[in-house]
Structures are given as C-alpha cells and as structure tokens.
Design goal:
Length: about 450
C-alpha cells in the first residue's frame, strides 16, 4: 500500500498518540505474535535489518537498557532504545541517541500503520492492540528512518508471547525473575521464568542474573534446548561491590573473558551494581562475538553517566523527595535496602499507590516497619487500586510489623503530594518517598519538576 495514495488520518502527534493510546481501553492486551507477523509481512519485515539486544526480566530492565545505551553511545555507536513504560511522554519510548522521536516522524509512521490496522480489524485476526502498534512504530522508526547500529529492545510483559518477541536478537538478556503480573504470566516463579525465557532464540547467547534455583533451572534448560550459550551471574560472571554511598556505587567485574574494575555508577542502590554487571557482561558478549569496539574509558564513563528517571531519583532537595517505582515485592525489598544503606534521615514519610494485580502484602512487609507516616493515594489511571483498599492492607499489617505510625488516605494524588511536602517542614533529617506504580511516579515526577501531568497510555 502506497503512503501517498492513502488519506492521512493524523495531522499532529497529539492526534496520533490519542489513537494509539485509545486502543488500550478498547482493545486491551492480547498476547501472541500472529497479528504482528502479518503486520511485519505487509511492511516488508523492517526488523530483519536491525541488530537487537532483547532485554526481559521482572525488575531492572529499564536500568540495564539505560546502561547499555549509555556505554554504546560512548563507544561511538548510534543506538535506538525502545522502553516501556514511559515516564513523561509517549515519545520517550522511541529514542535514537538519547533523543525522543520527532513529532513529524511519529505522525508519518502512525499514518502508515492506521490503514493496516483497519485492514486487520476487518479480518478474523481483529484489531491491533496499543502495544502492537507501538512496537510496530518502533520497528519502522529504527528500520526505515534512523538505522541505528544497535537497538536496545525492552520487552513489555513477559517475553514468550510479548509482541517485542517478533525480533531475532544478537543477544538476549533476562535481568531477574520476581512476583509480578502473575495474573497473566502464571502463579509460580517457574511459570514466570518460562515466559521470560521465551526470548531465548536458537544459537543466540543469553545473559542473566536470575537467582532462585527454580528460575535458574528453567533458564538453563531453555538455553540448552536452543543451543544458546548461557552467561549466568555467579557462574560465568561475578561482581564485588566495593562501596555504596548516595549517587556513587563502586564495584569490580569478573567475566569469562577478562576482569574489569573498579567501575562506578551513580544510580542508587546495591541492586544497581547487579544491573550494571549484567550490562557489562552483555557488552563483553558483543565484544567477543560481534567485534564491538569497547574501550575501557568509554565503558567506565558510560556506566558512570547513566541516568534513569523514577528509580531512586532525588527530584527535590528542599524538601528531600525521593521517587522510586517499586511496584512488586522485589522492588520494595531493593527500596528498603537502599533506604537502610544509602540515605540518612530521622523521619521517613512515604506516599504510595498501587495497581490492583500486585502482591501487596509481600510488598508492604518490606517497607512499612521503616515508615513514620504513610499516605495512601491512587494513580490517575483507569485500572487503579482503590486507596481505601490498599490502606486496609497496610492497617492490617501495621500491628504485626510495628509501623507505620500514621496511615493517611488521600485518593487525589496531587493533594497527597502536598500533604507529603507539608510533613517535611524545613528539616534536612526528613526524607519523603513517593513509591509504587509507575503511573503515580510519572505524574508525581512531572508535577514536581514541571508542574504538569505526564501523558498516559502505556
């Protein structure tokens, strides 16, 4: 179908984004690759000309993608980075050398996809989902507009049936496995590992930091069945954390090809050293298999300069307000460890909102004993969890855990944020934390930094 012969339905990026994000409530989530395969066929398979680094996992995907992007750019390569969800605007999802997709490119590519989506909607396959259109747009952007040397490619949900799995990568990465999206991925860690392991392709090396015996077993068996070399943290590569302080973690790396260190990262939390080590192992695989030119200085600088919004991010100094999108038990555990090891305070106040499909009891157990005042709110999103319901769980755990001292329910997130700021007073010894679903983190971050709400629709 020729672009010029088709009536162009969108004139602005806002119109294109409204169509794409509007597919979420109307079409929903439909796992599987059938429609995506048909779409790629109609588009002449633009993904086949690109080198993908496919990144899956429960937590740490975004950070690993950020490390990889930063180092590859320092090495002089052009890099496309596709991530989800976004923190400020829909265009954040499609980056080329650190810049969001231009409005005119977004409009042109959406106009190319709209008629194809309508064609499919008229068949037994049904309409494309929001994430299918988004992923196809990313493939078109990298495969027909920017042509990067590497595409850092984050999964949306799971792996095996995730639409990003349409690609055949040069290396697969599985950061870790935890309790998240269990309604869609399965009730056990083995079930979740099976879905994540679906990104492992025949003969393509896989790097992972999974740690539970049952998840290691699933990843190992999948890699063996695909004849893929497995680089497992603790087996093929390791790290040693040397020091942890605010905005600086130093660690050394030892892999099968060489030892490197010391290396420094500015993202906070001991878990970020693990994420950085996963990125280093991935880069070492590319150096060994694909002749990636990886200078030690570029590696060190790229890691140190990596930034990732909404993850242990201090967005305000007066008062001190820390944002962290800890939305599952493993994320909350990492947040609790960072609050113990990295930050100093006498009083810890926290604002939280969650989505309904999470393991709330296990998440809250990690954090509630540390909290003085807890403000429970709701994200500005159609699938939000009711604040009273989440507060009820916190109150039930309160006596068992010995905290928090106070629990406040404020469903309006902006009013909740004002209450959190008001609690801080002028004291340097008070730390305020906004945590939970990234839908809340996105809005709170935009409001605190820019006095605007974020866009919605991931």
């Amino acid at each position: 179908m020729n672009d010029e012969t088709v009536q162009q339905p969108f004139r602005t990026a806002a119109e294109a984004v409204a169509w794409i994000t509007g597919l979420m409530p109307t079409v929903g989530i439909r796992p599987g690759l059938e429609r995506m395969n048909l779409l790629m066929e109609r588009l002449n398979h633009p993904h086949r000309r690109l080198k993908f680094i496919h990144v899956a996992g429960t937590n740490g995907k975004g950070s690993v993608c950020a490390y990889l992007t930063s180092v590859l750019r320092k090495c002089g390569y052009d890099v496309g980075t596709f991530t989800s969800p976004y923190i400020t605007s829909y265009a954040n999802r499609f980056q080329y050398n650190g810049q969001d997709i231009a409005d005119e490119d977004l409009v042109r590519l959406a106009n190319r996809l709209k008629p194809l989506s309508e064609e499919l909607a008229a068949t037994e396959w049904g309409p494309l989902t929001m994430f299918e259109v988004t992923t196809a747009l990313a493939i078109l952007y990298y495969g027909t507009v920017t042509f990067p040397d590497y595409v850092v490619w984050e999964t949306g949900l799971g792996g095996r049936l995730d639409v990003t799995n349409i690609v055949n990568p040069i290396v697969s990465v599985i950061t870790n496995i935890g309790h998240d999206h269990m309604d869609l991925l399965g009730p056990t860690l083995s079930d979740i590992a099976y879905e994540k392991a679906g990104i492992i392709k025949p003969g393509v090396p896989v790097v992972t930091a999974v740690s539970q015996p049952e998840t290691i077993d699933v990843i190992r068996r999948t890699a063996e069945s695909k004849r893929s070399t497995l680089y497992l943290l603790g087996e093929k590569f390791s790290l040693e954390t040397m020091s942890v302080s605010e905005n600086e973690t130093r660690f050394s790396f030892e892999g099968p090809f060489r030892a490197i260190g010391p290396l420094t990262i500015s993202l906070n939390g001991a878990h970020q050293a693990t994420n950085a080590a996963v990125a280093v192992m991935t880069l070492e695989v590319l150096r060994q298999y694909y002749a990636l030119i990886l200078e030690d200085d570029a590696l060190a600088e790229g890691l140190k300069e990596t930034a990732w919004p909404g993850r242990l991010e201090m967005v305000s100094r007066e008062p001190r307000i820390l944002l962290d999108g800890a939305h599952n038990p493993e994320g909350m555990k990492a947040l609790a460890e960072a609050l113990r090891d990295v930050y100093s305070y006498d009083t810890l106040n926290m604002m939280i909102a969650m989505m309904p499909n999470k393991n709330h009891d296990e998440s809250l157990k990690h954090i509630l004993p540390m909290v003085n005042s807890l403000i429970v709110t709701e994200p500005d999103f159609h699938k939000k969890m009711n604040a009273d319901e989440l507060a009820g769980i916190a109150k039930r755990l309160q006596s068992e855990l010995g905290g928090p001292r106070d629990i406040v329910v404020e469903p309006d997130w902006r009013s909740a944020l004002e209450r959190l700021r008001g609690m801080a007073g002028d004291g340097e010894r008070t730390l305020s934390v906004v945590t939970g679903t990234l839908y809340l983190i996105a809005d709170a971050r935009s409001w605190l930094l820019h006095q605007t709400k974020s866009e919605k629709g991931w």
